[in-house]
Amino acid sequence: MSASLYNPSASVFWPLDCKESGYAFGWCNNNQNVVCIVVAGVIQLHTVDSKLREGLPKLLEHTQQHTDIADLGELQLIGKCTFYSGQRKGLVAPELEIGQATKYSIVFYHRHQAQTLRFYLMDTLGLEIDAFNVTSSSTVRPASGQKSSGISQHIVNQLNVASIINAAILDSLSSMSNATPSSTNLRRTTKSITARTSDLLETAISISQSFISMPIQVICNIHVSAKYLLKDVSLSVQQMDVRADQSAALLRQMAALQSRREGVRIEIYSMKYTSFFNTVWLILNDVTIGYAFGKFLCENHEVLSGMLKDAVENSLISWPQRALCWLDSWPAGLKLNTELSRFYSGTFVDLVDIWGGVLRHTIFPQLPNIIYIFGLISSFGALIVLTLHIYVCYAIAVLAYERALWGLGSLWRLFRGKRFNVLRNRTDSWEYDIDQLLFGTILFTLLAFLFPTVLAYYALFALLRLATILIQASLEIQLAFMNHFPLFALVLKLKDPWRLPGGLCFDFVRVSVHINEHEAAGAGTDEHFITTLIPIVENQPVTLGRIFFQYTRLWTKLASHYHPFRLFKSLLLGRFLVPIPRFD
Amino acid sequence: MQRLRPLQTNPEFSILHTDSFHEYRVENWHLARDGSGTVVRHASAWSWKYSLFPLMLSVSWPKVFAGSLARVLISLAAIFFVWTRCTQVIHETIIVLPEHGIQLETHKGLPPLTFFTNKRFVPYTILRDLVINEGIKRWDVRYYLVVLKEGTTGRVALEVCFPNILPHFPILLQVYQDLREFVSRQVPSTPSLPHTQPP
After folding, report:
1. Structure confidence by residue, pLDDT tens digits, B89-125
2. B-chain residues within 8 Å CB-CB of A8?
3. Contact A327, A461 (CB under 8 A)
4. β-strands A104-109, A10-15: how paired?
5. DSSP class of residue B38?
6. DSSP assignment letter at A363
7. Would the CB atoms of A151 and B123 count as touching at under 8 Å?
8. Closest by Cα among B133, B136, B84, B18 to A508
9. What range(s) does the Phosphatidylinositol N-acetylglucosaminyltransferase subunit H conserved domain occupy (chain B) (predicted)?
């Protein structure tokens, strides 16, 4: 390690598809003492005569004022470039004569057309964030104004607009030399792709929006009780609310996309485009599936109601009653306390019977109509209605179980001569009087012998409650996934990863560099070319983790609430099982 | 442009200097630690044992009922076997572009062919520091070289260099000393160490 490895030289970003000799123009970024040059394009020698050559700087300034890229730096003529390709196969590096620097190293970059919506990005941005809050300076910012002598967000912005600037300048040049006045073609190159269809869509959405938004707002905000709005309680109303919000956002996004005609910032436009179409796809998907499912329900409501009736009778009414009778008569050889068991099973069988009667006489006759209505508004509240009796029985059972458990624990401590200190939240030794001990022991014996019965009935309803909660959770998860599935981003990642950038990386290509005879003699070859490796700036597609980042967040929340260990512990301790709270 | 191997004890480490970049490569083999000089390879190329698997597959396939669970399991096992053989780490490199930044690469595939390359680029605007740290890996304590980078929110993230191979300390020290001058020149907030000659 004798010599320093660091030899500073100017780096020149050269577009990969540019192979003409001529005058290079672009941006010259002076950072610290090293220069970093971005070449936007090349004006060929034969298209300009000496008269135009003087007018070139003025032309560049004029173009710069026309667009909104003033913050990218001053567009200027860099110098002359020559390609000595001849009959050389493969990539050839240009030879440049630049005023400011004698030593330079070339880095290739891809200069994409504006219509392809491809761009570089220095660092990943969340795909779900509102693209409208992204300004050109909110991406990677160097700490406290420090500028690097190499690639940075500033340079990446220049790389992104290079193609547009190049097209604009070449157009102006051709119009100048042809002496025919023509308006700048910036507008044409940056015209939105979906011009006509978007107009149609916009009018459709705005009309529907104006009719529906007011009633929806009113419905969603009806107060069911003092604390809860209607949209907290019913899933279908919540869906309506979400869709209304999304269509309002769609209108705003479309307005912004339309106004893009004057701007040249590819990356912002592309991100807005992606998020807009993602939302459009989600809404279309939701409407289609909802309509199909609703139609299915409406057409088959008779058959479905018969099937539902049988299933509910079988599994929710008669099965719990049979199970309760089984528990009453020495289940699996366990001798439960006869009177307590008779009391429990009698109560619960009656409860189930009452609810079964309610279902049978009031709801089931209406079931075809109810299913028809569900087909129209697609609600999930049915599950809660059908299992209400299980909820009530579970509430009673868990009450008794928890009290019995706590009483047992406390009397056990008394048995051992200890007491639970509530102030310090720990167990301390304690001297009990003899009558306290005697009474406590009698109670303990009572509870201990009644406990298996309480446990047996609690176990049955706890398991039923657990099953209900899990089914409810899976329905909610399904709904949440459908609401936010990033299908557009996924398909785009497959089709054209350049449009979804997630960072940069460098690849290396073998390039022939022309050397003059002096150097060739020094290197000992007669060829005038040597091959070296030159870096190319490539785009790294965004990873699947970033696309699905909302899902990972949702998953961690769900996993922490429905963790099997936590559920098991709640069951054992007799805590009331609740599904995940929807708004916290 | 010649590949140097500066360390006698660790010939799997090689350096390449060119005009536009410097490459520090660690290949996925090492000399036996007992000093006998035998080469211990962690990524195995195609060997004759691999030819037995298609033989076993073709023998067992017609013996099992079509569409049964056994066929599904056999095909899953075959796919898993192919996948593990084709994603072995061949070599990991650090490529330093003197003006732009540091790129960490991992090449995976079936030796000697490379199928997948994972590249992480850290530009100098994000790079904060380069550190050698100790970490616990199962029952072992390993040294690792880590690049500190700071995102937009001010949150510092770590990028481990050579994350799969985790070479031994002499290699890391060599890379650290070479990279020190790039990091200290480009990132003015880090103190620049005096350039010392090796003893």
Report:
1. 999 999 998 888 899 999 999 888 889 999 999 888 8
2. 98-99
3. no
4. parallel
5. -
6. I
7. yes
8. B18
9. 93-163
